[in-house]
Each structure stands twice: as C-alpha cells, then as structure tokens.
Amino acid sequence: MEFQATANAPYASFDHLGFDADVSVPITSDGSIRARTVGGYGYGDSYLGRHHLRR
C-alpha cells in the first residue's frame, strides 16, 4: 500500500461549514504497519437567534 489521503469540506444552509482530513502512510516497506491521522472541524449557525455550534 502507498500514501493515502482524503479531504472533505461541506457547506450547507445557515453557514454550516465543516472540514475533515484523513491521511495514512506506510511505515514498513511492505505496508504491513501504517500510521494514520484523522482530524475535523465544524461550525454552524442556526435560524434561531444567538444559537451557534462549534466543534
């Protein structure tokens, strides 16, 4: 196996915005041992006043 990476950045109504990424790399030459990191962030407003979401 080789280097693998994915990323996603959705946007929706009420300013809902998100981002996530996933990266995987082989540590050994045959790929039997790998390292992986995953991260994400999300933010959103609402149609209700003074209601926000941040993750």
* Largest pleated sheet: 5 strands, antiparallel
Give the CA-based shape.
rod-shaped
By helix and strand content, what is the structural category? mainly beta
Task: Give the total of beta strands.
Answer: 5
Give the count of helical stretches: 0
**Low-confidence parts lasting 5 or more residues at pLDDT below 50?**
none
What is the H/E string? EEEEE
Q: How large is the share of residues in beta strands?
A: over 45%
Please state the average pLDDT score: 85
Count of discrete structural domains: 1
Instruction: Report the span from N to C terminus.
Output: 32 Å
Q: What's the helical proportion of residues?
A: under 10%
Radius of gyration: 17 Å
Any descriptors?
Outer membrane receptor for ferric coprogen and ferric-rhodotorulic acid, rod-shaped, Beta-barrel_TonB_sf, 55 residues, 5-stranded antiparallel β-sheet, mainly beta
Report on the architecture of this protein.
- The protein is mainly β.
- The protein has one domain (4-54).
- The protein has no helices and 5 strands.
- The protein has strands at 4-8, 11-12, 16-26, 34-44, 53-54.
- Strands 1, 2, 3, 4 and 5 form a 5-stranded antiparallel sheet that branches.
- A hairpin with a 3-residue loop joins strand 2 and strand 3.
- The two termini are 32 Å apart.
- The model has no long low-confidence stretch (mean pLDDT 85).
